Amino acid sequence: MHTDRERCVRAVQSRDERFDGWFFTAVLTTGIYCRPSCPAVPPRVENMVFHPSAASAQQAGFRACKRCRPDTSPGSPRWNERADLVARAMRLIADGLVDREGVPGLAAHLGYSVRQVERQLLAELGAGPLALARAQRAQTARLLIETTALPMADLAHAAGFASVRTFNDTVREVYALTPTELRARAGTPGPRTPGVLSLRLPFRRPLCPDNLFGHLAATAVPGVEEWRDGAYRRTLRLPHGHGIASLRPAPEHVDCTLALTDLRDLTTAINRCRLLLDLDADPVAVDDQLSTDPVLAPLVLKEPGRRVPRTTDPEEFAIRAVLGQQVSTAAARTHAARLVRAHGEPITDRDGGLTHLFPTTEALADLDPEALAMPRSRRATLIGLVAALPDLDLGPGGDWDRARAHLGALPGIGPWTVETIAMRALGDPDAFLATDLGIKAAAESLGLPTKPAELVRRSASWSPWRAYAVQHLWATGDHAVNRLPA
């Protein structure tokens, strides 16, 4: 996108917010960089330079605009639409892997050499993994500076900086303000509960919250998830501890409250909440593509901006997908709740009814099949999946095709389960549940083919957004999970 100068100039001159996160505009005369929708008077065309990432602009010596705050724009949808090396690397960096394991750890997770990873990121994004992680740390630091009363030394550590000096230098370089000046500019934070932060998660409009929050609420596992006071709440298992996220839809953003046992997990928690709600999607591109089909066009026109509800824990979701095979939503919740009570890790929730973290694969390793109130064949499938999960990379850096092949080779894992996990856990936007009963009913009512093989062929024109088509097809029937709870 950033190499198409004419298109970028048009986006900046029209202040088109659809392109926020796709590219960044650096202004040669002022030394700042902005998002395309910056409300300031657009600079002269000859003074514009375009960068593919905030890190690239920062590395070139530009500072973040204080008015449009480009570092807080929605993430580029490219990283959640693709499964190549660069996209997988960006998802892992966003999850905080470089801060935890360094660039060698990133390369090891991807199965490439450090040199190969650095070369490909630099070629496409104009910045290597360290610069990209540094830009993310700067954004986390700003959030903590402006929303907490933490002492700066504690804040630097929580944001992932190795020293207070590096923290001070980075904030000054990126924002042209010292940390103290940045806090004063935002206003003095009032009294706050330690470890609890409130923030806003931006997204590209339009967004249809009904299927997104309705699905999460309808399938919520008691003790791990709940719908309370107009917000979806759930527990989070994080690298340094655990947390609780509360997510409430608003017209311009999603209100997010995070209660964390360790503030070093802030970046990871934010990223997982964004993934859960599919907030970095490009709804205009999705809707435009699906609308080319005369069958889907009326559905898209009725409810534009549908998102794919995803997950904060891919392994948890894979287990829940097996528990949901050939049973109702209520039965699947019941099975999962039993596992949680028996094997989950207890936690304390001061503001609601959450009681446990979902059990890890280690906690389920010695699971007694006879204790599972389900058919013998599904017990065997669940036990087999739990045993295989340590070798299955379903996380943000996973290879979608390889994961599908591994899942499909497991006994009792059929196409429905594979595609459900691909859609919700792996985040593949082209996953398609051709064998789903709800999809079959929708296809029949709309005059689409009902045989899976024929429906797959018919859906080819919906690619690469077939997971979004699934959301629209489900909404054609009396699908309880497509309504926002009261």
Strand content: 5-15%
* Major β-sheet annotation: 5 strands, antiparallel
Count of individual helical segments = 22
State mean pLDDT (0 to 100 scale): 94
What is the share of helical residues? 40-55%
What Rg is obtained from the alpha carbons, in whole angstroms?
Answer: 23 Å
Quaternary structure type: single chain
N- to C-terminal separation?
41 Å
Please provide the count of β strands. Answer: 11
Question: Which residues sit in consecutive blocks of at least 5 with pLDDT less than 50?
Answer: none
Question: In what order do the strands lie side by side in the largest sheet?
Answer: 5-9-8-7-6
SS-based class: alpha+beta
> What is the 3D shape?
globular
Outline the structure in words.
- Strand 8 (241-249) and strand 9 form a beta hairpin.
- The model has no long low-confidence stretch (mean pLDDT 94).
- The chain has helices spanning 5-13, 54-59, 78-81, 85-94, 97-110, 114-125, 129-147, 152-158, 164-175, 179-186, 209-218, 266-277, 283-290, 297-302, 314-323, 329-343, 376-388, 400-408, 415-426, 437-446, 452-458, 466-474; strands spanning 24-27, 32-34, 48-51, 63-64, 196-201, 225-228, 231-238, 241-249, 254-260, 345-346, 356-357.
- With 486 residues, it is of the alpha+beta class.
- 46% of the residues lie in helices and 10% in strands.
- The longest helix is centred in the first third of the chain and has 19 residues, at 129-147.
- It is built from 22 helices and eleven strands.
- The strands form three sheets. The chain has a five-stranded antiparallel beta sheet.
